[in-house]
Amino acid sequence: MASQIQANAQKKNAEYASNFKEGHLALPPAKKYAVVTCMDARIDPAAAYGINLGDAHVIRNAGGNARDALRSLVISEQLLGTNEILLIKHTGCGMLTFKNEDAHSVVAKNLGAAGQQELSGLDFQPFPDLDKAVEDDVKYLKASKAIPDSITVSGWVYDVETGKLKLLV
């Protein structure tokens, strides 16, 4: 039996599919760029960053983390022709609220020894300073041998309270 969330997803998808007219879009993104941003539910990347269907790759993970996104970025660039990266973190991010030890403690409490063992040594990659985290991730991407020098990389901060986007680096 489907959960309420699953049933709603099926219903909403049926409504979406009944009017879907974008099946002709090409596989590579039309505007040749990728966005790395947070998985935070308060962010709608298409609306907030002006991305139409088919324009860009949007890679989402906890904190809009460059290291977690690297595999997807390499595929985006090397196999699908993107040539620019917008790294966008945001105000009020959950990654600002804890340290690795805190996360490991919660995992141990909630998942027990098996969960703790599987995630032993995992860096949850929290950050205490938003602007510095943006700068560090941009530096990481620019220094990475997997990201060619020809790729433009910029770092941004999105304000979840105002909806405004600010170029940082």
Question: Sheet with the most strands?
Answer: 5 strands, mixed
CATH superfamily: Carbonic anhydrase
Tell me how many strands there are: 5
Radius of gyration: 18 Å
Chart the SSEs and their pairings.
Layout (H helix, E strand, L loop, with lengths): L3 H15 L14 E6 L6 H5 L6 E6 L4 H14 L4 E7 L9 H19 L11 H14 L8 E7 L6 E3 L2
Parallel strand pairs: 1-2, 1-3, 3-4
Antiparallel strand pairs: 4-5
Describe, in plain words, how this protein is organized in 3D.
It is a single chain. With 169 residues, this protein is an alpha/beta fold. The protein has a single domain, classed as Beta-carbonic Anhydrase, Chain A, CATH 3.40.1050.10. The chain has helices at residues 4-18, 45-49, 66-79, 100-118, 130-143, and strands spanning 33-38, 56-61, 84-90, 152-158, 165-167. The protein has a 5-stranded mixed sheet. β1 (33-38), α2 (45-49) and β2 form a beta-alpha-beta unit. The mean pLDDT is 97.
Q: What is this entry, summarized?
A:
This protein has 169 residues and is an alpha/beta fold. The protein has helices spanning 4-18, 45-49, 66-79, 100-118, 130-143, and strands spanning 33-38, 56-61, 84-90, 152-158, 165-167.
